[in-house]
Amino acid sequence: TAAPTTTAAPTITVAPTTSAAPTTTAASTTTVTTTAPPPTSTATHSTTTTTVASRPVVPGCTDIVRRTPAFEKGIADHELWIGRIVADQITDQQMLGSGWSVGDGFMIDGVAHIWAMNAADNVLHHATFANDEFTDLGPISVDGEVFQGFIDPDVFRLPDGGIGLAAVNGMRVEGTRRQPGPVCLMRSDDGQNFETVQVLLDGSGVQDPAVIVGDEWVLAVQVFNQETIQLLVGTPDGGFETTASVLGRDPDLVMESDGSIRLTVCGDGMLKTYISSEGRSWESSDPIRSLTCGPAWISGSDWMLHLPKPGQGGAIPTPGGGSGGSANPPPANSAPA
Question: Which of these, 161, 156, 121, 162, lies nearest to 140 by C-alpha position?
Answer without folding.
Answer: 121
